[in-house]
Fold:
Amino acid sequence: MKTDRLIEELYREHTLSDEDYRLLIEGLRQEIREIDPGELYQLLRKDPETSHPDRPILQLFHRAQQVRESVYQKEVYLRGLIEFTNVCKNNCYYCGIRAGNAQAERYRLSKEQILACADQGYHLGFRTIVLQGGEDPYYDDAMICDIVRGIKQQHADCAVTLSIGEKEKESYQAYYDAGADRYLLRHETANEQHYKQLHPDSMSWQHRRKCLYDLKEIGYQVGCGMMVGSPGQTTDHLIEDIRFMQELGPHMIGIGPFIPHKDTPCREEKPGTLYDTLILLAVMRMTYPRVLLPATTALGTIHPLGRELGLLAGANVVMPNLSPGDVREKYLLYDGKICTGDEAAECRHGMERRVASVGYQVLVSRGDWRGQS
Ligand code: SAH
Structure:
């Protein structure tokens, strides 16, 4: 069968032709349908030698694990996520906190609240704090810098990651100078037409790409990424995403399934699937061996074993929620989001158990990208 040959080629060469990526992704999609997620979970926890090496889908995940272990061994990095505002000026058609969603109950955290969350995170063993939010003009550059400095003063050994959308290069530079280490800005899709399908005309695909290049130039560790199964996405779009990332050279890639939100224009769209996301994670791991790859909350939302399977497919990062309990259920990008009722400590310890259940180990460390820029 051709799929197994393509897996071996990707494992060796870390890239394929467009046509071969297509054959691989589509071939695997056909095959994986026949396995139940619980069975897949059991099979992947076994020794590769004893668990059906003749099934390409298992071969894919085992190869992805080998690649991740050759760079990051059995380590899994933790990021503590603080969702500090759900106010957003943008109107992305898929997102639950879009400006046009009048149903969303809006909130903002004060600097003191954010620092208290970060401090709690530190004591729980987090050495990366991620500040994520809508594009909320209330937090001007001076405020963001002040918050970043505050976290760094409290805990100099913590990395700070920002995920606050598109800004001008001067602003990114100011945050960097204040101490921010990393920036997450998913490119969402590398295809301009597809971008237009997902966003209103006021948003620009060119500008989003420019932001990513600006961030890299400044010296951030940069994360891009996309939803799997977003409305209108084709296999060709995914191949364009792979090519875009080969050009950009991100340090992190955030990939999760699209999940519809009931108060958005995408409410009737089909969600992305667990299996399509797992296949993409494994393909990404083999294409970019050193990349930091999270098993996302969205993956845990579409299946109870989603994050565990994500780790078994090559992911090496998890991002438990550190936001205060009373705002969690308001940061709803999509329906059914998990962990909205848990306390930070429960999330942290639950995550440790999940990671251990698949034979990996959570590390108390900044978890920087390993490689040369
Ligand atoms: N304002 C920031 C953070 C956006 S939220 C920014 O622009 O980067 C973080 C990510 O959540 C988005 O980049 C998007 O890929 C994802 N997301 C938004 N809505 C989603 C949905 N309905 N299903 C799954 N993921 C979604």
About this structure: The chain has a mean pLDDT of 95. Strands lie at 75-78, 80-85, 128-133, 159-163, 182-184, 221-228, 252-257, 317-318, 361-363. The chain has one domain: 71-363.
